[in-house]
Design goal:
Elements (H helix, E strand, L loop, with lengths): L6 E6 L2 H10 L7 E5 L2 E5 L1 H5 L8 H7 L4 E4 L2 E3 L11 H11 L4 H11 L9 E3 L2 H21 L6 E6 L2 E5 L1 H6 L11 E4 L10 H20 L4 E6 L2 H11 L3 E4 L4 H10 L11 H13 L10 H7 L3 H5 L3 H8 L24 E7 L2 H4 L4 H30 L1 E11 L5 E7 L8 H14 L8 E11 L26 H6 L17 E3 L6 E3 L14 H24 L25
Parallel strand pairs: 2-4, 9-11, 10-11
Antiparallel strand pairs: 1-8, 1-10, 2-3, 5-6, 7-8, 12-15, 13-14, 13-15, 16-17
Helix pairs in contact: 6-8, 11-14, 16-17
The chain binds a DNA duplex (12 and 8 nucleotides) through strand 3, helix 11, strand 12, strand 14 and strand 15.
Length: 584
Amino acid sequence: MPSSRLIALLDLDCFYAQCESVRLDIPSHLPVAVFQWSGAIAVNYPARAAGIKRFMKLEDMKKVASDIVAIHVEVETLSSAFIEEAGDEDVRKSKYKKQYSLTCEEKALAFSRENGHFPSRTSAQANIERYRYVSGLIFSRLRIFLDEVVGQGGYKLEKASIDELYVDLTEYVNKSRESTPPPLTGKVVIIGGDKNWTDDAQCLMAANLVSRLREDIKTTLGYTLSAGLAINKTMAKLAAGRGKPDGLAVLPRSSEAMKVALETTSVLEVRGYGGKGGKIVCENVLKFRGYNGPWEGDEYEEECKKLSMKMCGDCPADVLGSKHDWRLMNNGEEGEEVQHTKPGAPTKSITTFKSFVGDKESCHRKDDVKSKLGAWIEMMVKSLVRRVLDDSKRNNRWCKTLCVYFCNDVKAVKSKSTKFPGKSAQGKEESVTKFFIKTLEESTVWPIIRVGVSADNFFPLGAGLGIFLSKENEAGVTKPTDFKTTKVAKVVEKSTLFATVPPKSLAGICWNCKACTYENEADAKVCEICKTSRSVEDDEEYAKRLQKQFNDEEAEGVAIGVGVGVGEKRKAKKAKTVKDFFGS
DNA sequence: CATTTTGACGCT
DNA sequence: AGCGTCAA
């Protein structure tokens, strides 16, 4: 299977809990929970072993683990906000560096001061900057390791979230001449069992690299991570779940192993299918399979959970697509297409939020906005502008859009956006604050219990984006990155692995079959999947897509003020259904 | 059951 | 531009 990709997903184990364990030097056998107000947002594995879960309260934890370590996330308080100068990232960097390099005595002191002591949510906002810092450190270290071992350009690294990233190792394994890679170290799980571990030397090489990489992060920075290795991002993510904690799970590139994965994975476990959309897929599949209920209690949910990826793949596309255009398919040709790893991928938005609980705290009418929320708004605006300035320094970009969010109920979020003040504009905080207050005062929903503000739509100010930390960071990264914006983001994405909606990014390069929703090659006369003939309407829509894409690219080129070529256009590849893995 | 504070992205 | 969905 020489043309298949090899993608690894790396996932830091219970990340915030690890950060605190490292920062405060907490013995590894102790159960640790990181709290945000009264509920835990991260728990380590000893705690999980005792039955402790996310959102559990401290009293309940103590019942099952009396030695529980309870650390609260960092907060910004209303009273002591922001002594640091806006835009001085170095000040904050040294602040966080200091947090993680305490002496033994300082650690012990901080531990006793913090363990079990929670701040008041009525005068503070939770802030995860402490963990963003570690995330940056780890990602930077990963790049150093990969540059050393694989070589610059020989891999692609995409940040997926604060504690997750993808590494595309296809190029590395294709180029390498290494004949007998050293054996794997650490915990390794082979999905489908050892018997499915073929003599795939390239996959073994990639697995070996991931093992070493995990080891490197553990020895240099003291953090453990789990990893999944597979032919694409979705399967890598799935595999990583099997490797937890502190292990590597490989989905070998054999159809036998793929069969096992498809049969043993509930479709609800697949990224993107945990919510309403996944439920709709399940509903349709259940109907197709002749299960109509009536269902008692949790029966329905249980049936949904039992639906494997294979079962979904066995359904015709139109059964799944009745409402949401869902299609179940494996990657394109050779089972390898799709979801290209986006190199770098710096964050696309910066947001800050604060929720208020109880009637006393919430904002009931226009008059309450300034009196009750004024101080919060000021704090959040300062925090946002400061982070945007830091980001600007690091990534040499600025944002176009300012968006204010508020809601009276978790399900009814309202938002209003406007132009973000320019980088050199005077009084950025003041103008943002003004818009924030005005937007809330004009609210049609009361009481307001949650407010937030975000900066989005970043555009480059010049060449050379740094991605994780700026150049002289603690991990010693000095190389500028060669990441280029826009083009990469525009061209790369087509998500087609198991069950996806045809992505918008394909507009202009395919025609979309009405019968089965498949995105066909631009010049195909009949649908490659269901053989339906291309109609006049299809032609018209295709022409419209072409025009739209053309317009979009023109607009993009002007907006960022640099010469943007059309670039490489991704070709739609022939889809291979899950069924193909099972013959017939 | 939902909790909070993030973040990405799709639809109209 | 505004709202909805999904995830951790």
